[in-house]
Design brief:
Elements (H helix, E strand, L loop, with lengths): L2 E6 L5 H12 L6 E7 L5 E7 L2 H8 L9 E7 L14 E2 L5 E9 L2 H10 L11 H10 L4 H11 L2 E9 L6 E6 L4 E4 L4 E4 L11 E4 L4 E5 L4 E5 L2 E2 L5 E2 L15 H7 L1 H9 L3 E2 L4 E2 L2 H7 L5 E6 L1 H18 L3 E5 H4 L10 E7 L5 H12 L3 E6 L5 H6 L2 E3 L12 H20 L4 H23 L1 H10 L5 E6 L2 H17 L2 E6 L17 E5 L5 H13 L4 E6 L10 E5 L7 H19 L18
Parallel strand pairs: 18-19, 18-20, 20-21, 21-22, 23-24, 23-25, 25-26, 26-27
Antiparallel strand pairs: 1-4, 1-10, 2-3, 2-4, 5-6, 6-7, 7-8, 8-12, 9-10, 9-11, 11-15, 12-13, 13-14, 16-17
The protein binds 5-amino-5-deoxy-1-O-phosphono-D-mannitol.
Length: 607
């Protein structure tokens, strides 16, 4: 998505600070980027470039910014209008006095644009954003906050808007609804950003703005209005342990994050499972257990949706509670039957996904019990849910979700065990699962040791243009997640199917150029998966088996990636790591940018 960054401080620093801020935010949206800086002499420089922030940096190299003390910058994920320089933010008002950057979508922009054109305003871009700056100029009454309240009243949609005034460069002002925004306070500098983590190391404390807030920041002061009133927002201190995430010796963040999975799986259970006494600890879950929940609905998108699908298996099998899983984009607009014995779980790595957030708000408005499984503390979903489990995966920079996924699944497993022990879960099963959880980090470490073997198999198939990812039950969900990884990282078409379902039509696609991955780590459905693999082989299709080392049906597969299995409920944790690496190596082989795949953004803050 688009991301905004603003700075006000020392002369000469504005361009450097804004560009550095954009680079820290770039993983979240990266079609194009632009900055605007101003100086006290009312000079205003706007520079834009298509592509990565580096292209923008190159363009700024020869410019003397020594007098510029304030600036705003933007990385764009195109919604309205193609990826062109004209559509890059910042956008200027008709007179060139005001300048704006925007994250979100102004839904009534066409109507506002027509009104402004009728008044003589000339548009230079195809964006929805440009209306905001012309409109601001059109209704400007000499007071930034007052004009902003009028602007907000005219706009429908979601927005994080940040403005500068060329004629008075001592302040930055704006508003937000639906799009994240924080004000950051350094010793002698002020910042605006879509994500406070882009400000770590620069600020002492920050304020998370709420929907509807209108703000104005100067070096000495700030005002936040909510409605017509001054809003009292808490200044939060940046924790001492919060650091800028470094790559270390890894070539990219995706690989680093894949290799962090043994550690994050220790972190996610720390203090929650006591392995010496096999006991579970969570005040939050104790409260949930007392609600007498009879049904669960899980709402999420993308990889988090897949975590929810695994959550369904765990909750149904271990806690004996029926579960629906709905993608948030669909949930939002479907009829809801919210009842007091139902729990709604919202899953999100970023905690900012707009459809998941909106869905949560709808359930809350109907007094439903809401619960978040979120990675980012302080994010909008974490704050709106008010209760839940943090996944403790740490900052995930790679756009393709990896370590966040395994920790989301771990949270579902923990929740299912917790509710299960109150709901008649068999003690032997409970112990078996706890014992296997204790072995998980080491089991994943040994998968990571097979990285080279996985690379060899992946590269053998790297020029294929289609893949099936097959499995049943838990492993079908892992097939779905593996298939998504391949699509987003390598840009190769793939489909996930229940292995038993293939023969009902899609097997017609199989030929020698159409490989399938069979996710088949063992368990009672393993022979069925092997039979499906036989059926594909009989039609000339190569099948790559993701199988246990002692699988008796090894001969069915053209290639195998073998691993030491745990119990079948926990094998998905291992299999997904293999599929993450499989997709990673194909993408790498094809020269893709694995951290920032094309057309994507790390968090999706527009509908
Ligand atoms: O931040 P969220 O978990 O709410 O994001 C939802 C999806 O956009 C996300 O999981 C996406 O599918 C992954 N980046 C894919 O790897």
């Amino acid at each position: 998505m688009c991301w905004v960054f603003g700075y006000i401080g020392a002369p000469g620093k504005a361009a450097r600070e804004v560009l550095a801020g954009l680079q820290r935010l770039e993983y979240r949206g990266y079609d194009s980027a632009g900055i605007c800086v101003i100086n006290p002499d009312k000079n205003l420089e706007v520079i834009k470039a298509v592509g990565k922030v580096n292209n923008l940096k190159v363009k700024t190299d020869s410019i003397d910014f020594s007098t510029y003390h304030a600036g705003i910058g933007h990385t764009r994920w195109a919604t309205h209008g193609g990826v062109t320089e004209a559509n890059c933010h910042p956008h200027l008002s008709q007179s060139g006095r005001f300048v704006v950057i925007h994250n979100g979508i102004i839904e009534n922009y066409a109507e506002l644009r027509d009104e402004l054109i009728a008044k003589g305003y000339v548009f230079h871009s195809e964006t929805d954003t440009e209306v905001t700056v012309h409109l601001f100029e059109d209704i400007f009454d000499g007071d930034y906050l007052s004009t902003m309240t009028k602007l907000v009243a005219k706009m429908h949609g979601a927005y994080g808007l940040v403005f500068l005034d060329r004629d008075n460069g001592n302040q930055i002002f704006g508003t937000k609804k639906g799009s994240p925004m924080v004000l950051g306070f350094g010793k002698t500098e002020r910042y605006i950003s879509s994500d406070y983590r882009s400000l770590i190391g620069l600020i002492d404390d920050y304020i998370i703005l709420e929907d509807g807030d209108i703000f104005l920041v100067t070096l000495d002061n700030y005002t936040i209005l909510s409605g017509w009133q001054d809003a009292d927002r808490t200044r939060q201190i940046v924790g001492e342990d919060e650091k800028v995430v470094e790559l270390g010796d890894f070539p990219n963040f995706m690989l680093k994050e894949v290799f962090e999975q043994p550690r994050v799986l220790e972190d996610v259970f720390r203090g929650r499972i006591d392995f010496s006494s096999n006991s579970l600890h969570s005040d939050t879950l104790e409260h949930i257990a007392m609600l007498g929940i009879k049904k669960v609905t899980i709402v999420a998108s993308g990889t988090s949706y897949h975590a929810g699908l695994l959550g369904k298996y765990y909750l149904e099998e271990l806690s004996n509670i029926p579960v629906d899983v709905v993608v948030s984009t669909e949930f939002k607009y479907k009829k809801k039957f919210v009842s007091s014995d139902e729990l709604y779980i919202f899953v999100s790595q970023s905690g900012e996904t707009i459809d998941t957030l909106d869905s949560l708000k709808i359930v809350k408005e109907q007094w439903g019990h809401v619960f978040g499984i979120v990675n980012v503390p302080g994010s909008a979903i974490a704050r709106a849910a008010g209760q839940g489990l943090f996944t403790r995966a740490g900052t995930e920079v790679g756009v393709a979700s990896t370590k966040a996924f395994v920790t989301q699944v771990a949270c579902f497993l923990f929740l299912s065990l917790y509710l299960g022990q109150k709901n008649g879960l068999d003690y032997r099963k409970y112990r078996e699962i706890i014992d296997s959880i204790a072995k998980l980090p080491e089991a994943i470490s040994s998968i990571l040791l097979s990285n080279e073997a996985i690379r060899k198999v992946a590269e053998k198939y790297a020029n294929s243009t289609n893949f099936f990812y097959l499995g049943r039950a838990h492993e079908l969900v892992i097939a779905m997640e593996g298939s998504l990884k391949l699509k987003e990282l390598a840009y190769i078409h793939s489909e996930a199917y229940s292995s038993g379902e293939l023969k009902h039509g899609s097997i017609a696609l199989i030929d020698s150029d159409f490989p399938s991955l069979m996710i088949n780590g063992g368990g009672i459905l393993s022979p069925k998966n092997a039979s499906s693999a036989e059926e594909i082989r009989a039609r000339g299709g190569p099948v790559i088996g993701i199988i246990a080392k002692d699988d008796p049906n090894k001969q069915v597969y053209a290639d195998v990636i073998e691993f030491d299995p745990l119990i079948s409920e926990l094998n998905p944790f291992l299999e997904v790591v293999i599929l993450q690496l499989f997709a990673y190596h194909i993408a790498n082989f094809l020269g893709r940018d694995v951290d920032k795949p094309r057309n994507l953004a790390k968090s999706v803050t527009v509908e």
